[in-house]
Prior knowledge:
Elements: H1 2-19, E1 26-27, E2 33-35, E3 38-42, E4 59-63, E5 66-75, E6 88-95, E7 100-107, E8 112-121, E9 124-131, E10 144-149, E11 158-161, E12 164-167, E13 176-180, E14 201-205, E15 209-211, E16 213-216, E17 225-228, E18 234-238, E19 248-253, E20 260-269, E21 280-282, E22 295-300, E23 309-315, E24 321-328, E25 330-335, E26 338-344, E27 352-358, E28 361-362, E29 366-368, H2 378-387, E30 393-396, E31 399-402, E32 410-412, E33 417-418, E34 424-425, E35 438-439, E36 455-456, H3 457-474, E37 481-484, E38 489-492, H4 500-519, E39 525-527, H5 531-534, E40 571-574, H6 579-596, H7 601-623, H8 632-648, H9 651-667, H10 669-678, H11 685-708, H12 723-739, H13 749-757, E41 800-802, E42 806-808, H14 817-820, H15 824-840
Parallel strand pairs: 30-38, 32-40
Antiparallel strand pairs: 1-2, 2-3, 3-4, 4-5, 5-10, 6-7, 7-8, 8-9, 9-20, 10-19, 11-12, 11-16, 13-14, 15-18, 16-17, 17-20, 18-19, 21-22, 22-26, 23-24, 23-27, 25-26, 27-28, 27-29, 30-31, 32-35, 33-34, 36-39, 37-38, 39-40, 41-42
Helix pairs in contact: 2-15, 3-4, 3-6, 3-15, 4-6, 4-7, 6-7, 6-8, 7-8, 8-9, 9-10, 10-11, 10-12, 12-13, 12-15
Amino acid sequence: MKKRKLHSVVMLLLAAFNYATGQDLKLNDREYFEQQGVNVLVYNNLFTGGFNDEKNAGIELIHHGVRTAQGGAVRLSNTPEQWDLVPDILNRKVDRAAKTVEATLRYKEYNFDSRIVVTAKGKGVEIAVYLDKPVPKALEGSAGFNLEFLPSQYWAKNYLVDGRPNLFPRYVVGNTVTRPNSQKPKQFKGYVTSDDRGTGKFIHPLPLETGRTFLFAPDAPERMVKITSQDTDLMLFDGRMLAQNGWFVVRSLLPAGKTGKVLTWTVEPNAIKGWVRDPNIGFSQVGYLPAQPKVSVIELDKKDKPAKSASLFKVGDDGKATKVFTDKINPWGDYFKYHYVKFDFSSVKTPGIYYIQYGDTKTNNFLIGEQVYSKITDATSDIWIPIHMNHMFVNEAYRVWHGEPFKEGYRQAPPNTDHFDLHAQGPTTDTKYKPLELIPGLNVGGFFDAGDFDIETGSNISVVQNFVKTWESFKPQRDQTFIDQKQRYVDLHRPDGIPDVLQFIEHGTLNLVAQAEILGHMAQTLSNSVLDNYHHLGDAASLTDGLPYNPKLGPYEVAKDGRSSGVKDDLWAFTSREPELDLRAATMFAAASRALKGYNDDLSARALTQSKRLLKEATALLANQKQDTSGRGNAANMATNLQLYIATNEKQYLDRFQLLLWPALERNVSGNLLAALDAIPHLDASYKGKLRPYVVKYKEYIAGLEKNNPYGVPIGLTNWAGSGDVTSFGTTVCFATKYFPEIIEAQHAFKATNYLFGAHPYHNYSLVATVGATRPKAVFYGNNRADFSFIPGNVAPGILFRKPDHFENYDDWPFLWGQNEGTIGGNTAYLIFGSAFKNLIK
Length: 842
């Protein structure tokens, strides 16, 4: 047995030696270390703290095309969580002659600075930590240097620690101890991420292994990394002990009482000799209409020599593939890290099953046919949206998605309260309710915002507007959902005789009208009072105990009558008044009142009453504030007046709309054209004529997109990926084509579907978990993300840009919200686009 174990170790080490080849790392012009197959970024992306989960920052390793390590920095815990403190980066210095990148890190909460110097060293980098002052007493045994590795890229792979073999676990394993809360480092703004259930202790994970030489994945050369330290122990932790989104963490504690160079690591990522990234053949996983443009965008490693041609194969009835079309590829050029070429197979119009072959790479099968787009919104409207209905029990066949949440209702958020989800209660409540007083009547209607269970008022306003626009523009009669407001019960795949979209409008309006009537204006949010239940995963009904909090009871005690408890888990209403939000609500209420008329006349009338009142009050409040230079207030006011004119036919609203519209188009035609197009059916021909030059200007904007990137759509470069921008672009094109077909060609709408369904950077999976896509993404950031699953119909934010030149979208790791989280606002905007697109191609 010992011989067999020794033989395994020897074989792993030999494999590691055989693959440890490649050139030395160089500091490139984009200020990161590079060789073919390996990029080491050093504070190109900075920590921000708070809401961000900080898995996109620090020292990062992009290993054979995949970002596999990140977070390299001095951290204050073994396995940092979201809302743990992160360091401010005071400066970043690049010294090309010395081949170093240096950054100064500061924890202002502890008056603690450190300096990180990363130096190219052969095939790897040396990471050194310098201290001018010793580690503060409060952080001795807590402050250490961490580097985190992506679990999905390492589980089931081997690792060696000082020659001892082991296996990265697929599911979290390991040991923990508990320590007194007094020893726990501070968290962001004093938040607490866990419920200690009255024990006064926190969980402290213990290392899986400790040693001086770590060799990760010697059995997988594309992921092999060697980490050594001559002056300190290396420890390996499983960050999933505390949070499902945790990574594998390599860590060394900073020594107490020392200054100068206190810690040194050498990190050597393996570079496979001659490695070239496989081509990413972008195409629509949903397929193509016979008559539409069909252009594949192929993303290539810059070291890859472009092939001269690509081919299309058709799968016959006998299962055999036949080459039916070959043509030369067309060069587009470089876009950030990669080179792009295009393959146009528009001339192929015969319905059937096809795949593309470029060199040795071939795609999965896709369809050409007349019905390929017929189901692109069905999963979103039938499944994803009703699952996100709050205050309802949602059932699907044998499965319960969630019980009825928040039966105990919402309490008034106390003044001067900062919220972890970027909200704040101001110095007063702005309502008649006292701090922590129960506000009756708010636990009705509304939609979960995203992968959490709060009602973000701004999002819900947009959602109802999206439903109304879908209803008024296309009158979808689809009915696949049973919705009963009295029973507070939803059953999927069960028609009830009422169009689902009309019931969605009702459900969203119920909550928002309740806010306006009960509070007197719109709440910022109805959200969690404690952080521990904000990051809850699982059934929303189990997020709280369903009982109002009773301060007379002890912690976790239940009253004898069973009607209250001592659990501080009730949700709060953040009610500081925001006139701009009220204006947006006025817009939505005006639109909803029209849609609900004849279906729920009482709710329709209430919505119209609140629209007029909020418009009047919010306009007066804004007039007394400092001038809004952002344009957001004017945009909201513009849309509100248009919706009120459509609802009431009163000329005063039309005049105000037109007064605001034309300057808005001058400032930003791409952002405001859709609102202008919405007015066409309700105004005369002279309005359409006046709008025409702006549509011409929008055509120029489209031409600019085609020069900007190979996909010809707006691609976002922020910490939230750009599917929403692409959806909005596609919707605008669909409506512009409807009213101005001689200016805006319908073919531009296919750029949006192509991008959403697979023709985008990084991979070619559909960003929509849609019915009809041959290969949709497999995992999304939803409230079931811990299951590495998805909710059908979800739309991912998409391809996330990491500075300075890397796009990514993990399909094996759902927890990065900026690339994988579907939102109720984004998914209902997709419902509009999908409906408009299907209408366009009829």
